[in-house]
Amino acid sequence: MKKTKSQPAAREIFGLNVRRARRFKEISQEELAFQAEISRNYLSDVERGVRNVSIDNMEALSKALGISLADLLKPDLFAMNTDDLEE
């Protein structure tokens, strides 16, 4: 039987897009966390997709990155490959 990969969870897509946007803008986790007024440890969990992030914190990260919240939830924002979730 052929095994198929399931669609990643919304929190994984969001976290991956936040990580990629942060890296693209050459911002450290510490700096982004400061701008979004959240802890760096919390941001790390969000980026890894292990934290169930609140809508308020999603908005704060979106504003700090200058990217719409809707865009950060798009699976193909950065031409995402689900293999990237294992980074």
List descriptors.
87 residues; mainly alpha; 434 Repressor (Amino-terminal Domain); disordered C terminus
Polypeptide structure, described:
The protein is mainly α. It has a single domain, classed as 434 Repressor (Amino-terminal Domain) (Orthogonal Bundle), CATH 1.10.260.40. The longest helix is centred in the N-terminal third of the chain and has 15 residues. It is globular and about 35 Å long. The relative contact order is 0.22. The C terminus is likely disordered.
Question: In a few lines, what is going on in this structure?
Answer:
The chain is an all-alpha fold and 87 residues long. Helix content is 54%, strand content 0%. Helix 1 runs parallel beside helix 4.
Q: Strand percentage, roughly?
A: under 5%
Rg over CA atoms, rounded to whole Å, is 13 Å
Give the termini separation.
27 Å
Number of domains: 1
Large-scale geometry: globular
Here the CATH topology equals 434 Repressor (Amino-terminal Domain)
Low-confidence stretches: 80-87
Main sheet attributes: strand count, strand direction, barrel closure? none
| CATH classification class | Mainly Alpha
Topology, pairings included?
Elements lengths: L9 H15 L4 H8 L3 H9 L6 H11 L3 H4 L15
Helix pairs in contact: 1-3, 1-4, 2-3, 2-4
